Input
Amino acid sequence: MKLGKYLQDNFYQFLVFGICYVIQLLIFFAFKVDQAVLLASSFLYLVCLCLILLIPYFRKKRFYTDLLANTFALDKSYLVLETLTKPAFYEGELLYQAFYEINKSMNENVRQIEEHLQDFKEYIEMWIHEVKIPLSTLVLISNNHQEQFDKKTRLQLKRLEDYVDQVLYYARSENAEKDYYIKEVDLAKVIKNVGLKNMDDLLAHQIDYLVENVHYQVFTDSKWLEFILGQIVNNSIKYKRNIPHSYLQISVKEDQATTTLIIEDNGIGIKAADLKQVFDKSFTGENGRNTNQSTGMGLYIAKKMCEKLGHKIEIASVYHAYTKVSITFAKNNYYDVLK
Amino acid sequence: MIIDDDTFTCNELAKLLENHHYEAVILKDFKNALTEIAAVSPDLILLDINLPYLNGKALLQHLRKESNIPVMMVTSSNTEIDEALSISYGADDYITKPYHPHILLLRIGAVLKRVKMHYRLNETELTYRALKFDVQRGILKKGEREIELTKNEMIIFSYLLSHQNRIVTREELMTALWDNAEYVNENALTVNISRLRNKLKEIGYEEVIDTRKGLGYILL
Output
């Protein structure tokens, strides 16, 4: 609360005082009052003016200054009411009361939306579990009756499965609550599961799955990591180049504080202009426009999940040469001490 | 034995298992699941989590109080927590729907093998006609003659051997290889099979691995 502005705002008080003062002066002159009385009275006027203007200023100043400062200081400014003491002047009380009611109604609103969101998420999860049952039966049928359903059917079923999984993990990664379970996981096992899951696709597209020594233990949720890796492998399949030897190479690098999983392919790569945005929601870029199969969600979800799990995901690429994705896991020395 | 509330899934799963020479029974009475399990006394149970009356995890807990029948959880719930819980309740394996049928069969094979190993600890030698196959060392023996197999050849041969006289598709062999972290491509599989054939020929078993065009291979 600035004094200048406050005084400007209370300009009418100056005005009233000024008019009264002038009238008084005129009266004094008319009655030829002594100069000393005139001075004393003027002085009194000045003091009164100051008091009338400044007392309310100082009464209000603290409340408003706190209100403003705290509002800007808080990252969730709607919580500002909690930081203020109830003001001792009437206007402030009214304001405080209004704030209180506004807050209450907003909390109510937020709670309702959260409930809706939670309901929706639960429904999506349930729906996904339900839809997986007929899906898995379809997979079985297509396998049991190979004379009627060829490999193409199975590859399409696999695509369907992938999209369903994407929704599931999107719902999970968007949700504020903890939906994962971190424990020590063997990277080799995760890589094997992802490989098996995508075997048909990799073979159909003639992409070699080259895995180096990957027997490293990291702390993560294996299901989440399998999904993240799956997204990366899927991208490599989607964006392969038409060259004789397509490959997908998986390796691990380790230093004192971190373990890094590196997935490199020799696919079409990503243009430098697009590289910065590949983790953005719904970003498809040049490659997406050309293949018409991108949702722009895979890497976005992967990044989000990595953030939740505390891993770092990075991407490097040279157009028409390679794409290299690396996921860095922090080593947890605390657990080493326990062992 | 299959325990799942979706009859369609049950039937197809039973069909898959029967196609691969397993005997499949489907649980009918969920109310008295435990007595029915005891009556059938299966070698392995495939158990879903979402079941009427008693969910899969609870059923498993009850079951573990009285028996050691191997149990494989087959479910559409794929959280790490569910898996950890199931294993802690005594499940032998956990596989999520939708699963690849070949992977399911491999896992079933692995669980059954582990259980058998438990009974007969030293069974690491298989026989094929007059050949002895040392699985641990990857060596084929005919009398005094020994032939060493590479890891890939060994995986292929054991798979063919355990499915003798039945057509094995290339896809099945691929799955078996990849499941052992041998990520070979189509060419490599062809090369490995012809090498395996040559090695078998060396010790006098010519043309025992027959190619069935468009279907796969068969070990006679």
In short: Helices of chain B lie at 7-19, 33-40, 56-66, 80-88, 101-119, 151-162, 170-179, 186-202. The longest strand of chain B covers residues 71-75. The two ends of chain B are 30 Å apart (CA to CA).
